Amino acid sequence: MRVSRLLLVMIGAGCWYTGAWAQSLPQPQEVVTRACDAMGGVAAFRKAGFLRVELSSEEVTEDGQTSSTKKVLVFHSESIIPVRLEIANLQVVAGDDGSGGWAVVGGRPDSRPSTSLMVRRMVTTDVFPLLLPCSLTWPGVAVTAVAPAQVGDRPTWRLTVTLARNFFFTPQISTVWTVDVDRRSYQLVRAESPFTDLGKGVVADGMRFSWGNFVTVAGLRLPSSQMVVGLDAAGNEKTHSRRDQVRWERVEREQTAGLFENPIPPEQRPRLPVGKPVSLPQNPAPSP
Q: Contact, 248 vs 217, CB < 8 A?
């Protein structure tokens, strides 16, 4: 009888602690809103308008080979579109004014039908991690869960993020990410995209993102450096890495005239095959 009573007490205490912890666990959208507040706020993010980014990257592959690239990106903070992409060393100029992407490579129009979709996705791939956590409010992004976690000695809230199937320019980037924010300050700590295996030997490293040297632009706390480390199938870090240096600038709308419009004559533009519409995950936007 005494043993039975003791078990009942222990079970009751366990239930109490579980219930208390469940009550203290915030909702995913609450964490997103507070994390955006730590960045400058959803309202400031939406009002920032056009941002120009100079992205200088140094990449080290698994076998020790190094390469560097420099891109210039112009896009709208709230919804990405319209966008412009310039890669000088590849002689690439591309854009999308909302009616479809275009690209000029070495002075010649890019005739591939996929260009109509890929320009926006390429810019999104670059700036989504740079604009976390407020980029979690973009269309095609759903924050589905939150759980307590730890990054080093920092307690965090770990968000599970599901992205639309066509969110990035390649299916080799996972569409299920995790994003960690500090449990006290709600500042961004880390984000991860896991290793992918598409079958038939098509695999790609995962990515672990971290940031530093923040600056304030248009009222937003934005990183001027980003570190990306490759992850293997078990989530272990690899020697494959990339270091990005980022320069931000807010651009007035009148300064964007002519940046996004398609310069290619209509008769030379590729036509995209008609297909089924893509359904996007739903994610209620946090309140400003």
A: yes
